[in-house]
Amino acid sequence: MNLRKHEKRDDMKVWLSEQEVEILLDTTSDTEHYLAYALGLRCGLRSQEVLDVAPSHVVETDVGHMLRVWEGKGDRYRETPVPSTLAARVQTIEDVRTTPSDEPLLDCSTRTLRRWVSNIGEQIAESEEDKGWTYLSYHDLRRTWATNLGAQDVDPLVVLDWGGWNDLDTFLDHYRGIYSPEAQQRERAKVGWL
After folding, report:
1. What is the CATH number of the domain that holds 161?
2. Rounded to whole angstroms, how far apart are CA atoms 162 and 12?
3. CB-based contacts of 154: which residues, under 8 Å, 6+ apart?
4. Phi and psi (nearest 5°) for 64?
5. What confidence tens digit (pLDDT) does each residue in 25-34 have?
6. Cα(146)–Cα(8) distance, rounded to whole angstroms?
7. Residue 164, strand partner residues
8. Which of 68, 111, 140, 165 could form an S-S bond across to 171 if both were Cys, CB 3.0 to 4.6 Å?
């Protein structure tokens, strides 16, 4: 986990490692919470965008499963990749639901999403004995997604497009502001005395 102080607030920005992402998802107690976290961590959605996701928004394209974000920030359309396991979970939910496929998956508020993330952060902080988890916010899931893509050498312009950012400077300043633990380990390994 990497932490950095917010410039204008008293709390911290959090970037989770891939191992910590797995801890969070494995700690999740039910499908609704899992979907809420996975859509942030694996698709880079903002909290409001998560609430709009319906099963019909997950489509198979020439590049694989994609999530169509019809009205993202500023009512902008974009498509972002969806892991096949998450797409299968959404399809399973659609298969057993009685509501239309264009009805949202989650029935809650952004405030509820933020509370869920805060609560799971507190829970993991206690079990892992790591206070850093107490700073976790929903937006940190999106921040983690972008940084972890960068750590896998995904072209920043592709991440910019998938994440729906308007410009590269905003993306680099706020989302890729710190290197993932994996990237830092790779770089440290290059220095014999570290």
Report:
1. 1.10.443.10
2. 25
3. none
4. 115, -165
5. 999 989 999 9
6. 22
7. none
8. 165
